[in-house]
């Protein structure tokens, strides 16, 4: 049966997606040291090529892959981990799949391809065992603790002292001491658990996440002379850090974004608001003027 122009256009778009993802999967597979992970990624890539051949049988036309998307997703995978990169790519494909139902009106093959995309590939992606994701909990610990403690401390210090240099110095001392404390706690905690995680690496990961967060939150106080604007920027930075990291986890570990984002943001900003009030009360109670 001859395809209508509209359906042919949709199938050609699907063809381009499939052949592009075939190249992405195989490029990433070549970089994976773990044999099981490599075979899983190659298998998904071969599925994409098979889907491409099915579409080609209907259009009778070769389609070139998107070189930009191949570069984009392989680069993202190298920087943020292959699990995140591949799942992010699949999320983009899901948005393109909304027209598969329409295609199936003329090409019934679209239904089983859609089912395989949704079930089989997601199942295979869930089998990936990326070592760096083991330490996501350590990153969460460092980020969450730094955001909660330091946003609260900065809010309290801002309204207790109102001097950016004193606030920045106090925040740095608090942050560095707390990062060492958290790293030590994570080391002891991981060592006492039955886990694949290395205690030293878990401790370093927590400490680094804490210090990076501390640096970003205190930076406005080091660059600006207005403590209120510095606090506003620090709180905004806090929310952005929470949003970015929760987006990463929602993609890489299939966690709900909204729930975890609101939980972390609410906790961080709630402590900051409480500390804000405490800072004002202490300033007025003791009559501190700096």
UniProtKB/TrEMBL annotation:
<feature type="transmembrane region" description="Helical">
    <location>
        <begin position="166"/>
        <end position="188"/>
    </location>
</feature>
<keyword id="KW-0472">Membrane</keyword>
<dbReference type="Pfam" id="PF01988">
    <property type="entry name" value="VIT1"/>
</dbReference>
<feature type="transmembrane region" description="Helical">
    <location>
        <begin position="228"/>
        <end position="249"/>
    </location>
</feature>
<dbReference type="InterPro" id="IPR008217">
    <property type="entry name" value="Ccc1_fam"/>
</dbReference>
<protein>
    <recommendedName>
        <fullName>Rubrerythrin diiron-binding domain-containing protein</fullName>
    </recommendedName>
</protein>
<dbReference type="InterPro" id="IPR009078">
    <property type="entry name" value="Ferritin-like_SF"/>
</dbReference>
<dbReference type="InterPro" id="IPR039376">
    <property type="entry name" value="Ferritin_CCC1_N"/>
</dbReference>
<dbReference type="GO" id="GO:0030026">
    <property type="term" value="P:intracellular manganese ion homeostasis"/>
</dbReference>
<feature type="transmembrane region" description="Helical">
    <location>
        <begin position="261"/>
        <end position="282"/>
    </location>
</feature>
<feature type="transmembrane region" description="Helical">
    <location>
        <begin position="200"/>
        <end position="222"/>
    </location>
</feature>
<dbReference type="GO" id="GO:0012505">
    <property type="term" value="C:endomembrane system"/>
</dbReference>
<dbReference type="GO" id="GO:0005384">
    <property type="term" value="F:manganese ion transmembrane transporter activity"/>
</dbReference>
<keyword id="KW-1133">Transmembrane helix</keyword>
<keyword id="KW-0812">Transmembrane</keyword>
């Amino acid at each position: 049966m001859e395809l209508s122009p509209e359906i042919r256009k949709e199938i050609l778009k699907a063809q381009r997606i499939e052949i592009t993802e075939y190249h992405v999967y195989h490029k990433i597979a070549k970089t994976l040291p773990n044999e099981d992970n490599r075979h899983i990624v190659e298998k998904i890539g071969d599925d994409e090529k098979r889907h491409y051949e099915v579409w080609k049988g209907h259009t009778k036309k070769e389609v070139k892959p998107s070189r930009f998307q191949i570069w984009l997703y392989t680069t993202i995978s190298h920087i943020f981990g292959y699990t995140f990169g591949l799942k992010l790519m699949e999320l983009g494909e899901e948005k393109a799949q909304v027209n598969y139902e329409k295609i199936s009106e003329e090409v019934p093959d679209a239904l089983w391809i859609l089912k395989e995309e949704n079930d089989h590939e997601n199942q295979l992606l869930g089998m990936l065992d990326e070592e760096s994701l083991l330490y996501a909990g350590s990153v969460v610990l460092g980020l969450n603790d730094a955001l909660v403690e330091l946003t609260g401390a900065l809010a309290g210090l801002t309204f207790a002292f109102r001097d950016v240099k004193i606030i920045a110095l106090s925040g740095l001392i608090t942050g560095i001491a707390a990062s060492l404390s958290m790293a030590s706690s994570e080391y002891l905690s991981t060592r006492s658990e039955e886990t694949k995680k290395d205690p030293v690496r878990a401790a370093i990961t927590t400490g680094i996440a804490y210090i990076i967060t501390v640096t970003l939150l205190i930076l406005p106080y080091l660059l600006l002379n207005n403590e209120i604007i510095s606090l506003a920027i620090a709180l905004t930075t806090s929310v952005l850090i929470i949003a970015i990291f929760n987006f990463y986890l929602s993609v890489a570990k299939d966690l709900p974004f909204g729930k975890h984002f609101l939980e972390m943001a609410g906790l961080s900003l709630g402590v900051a608001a409480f500390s804000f009030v405490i800072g004002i009360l202490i300033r007025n109670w003791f009559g501190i003027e700096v």
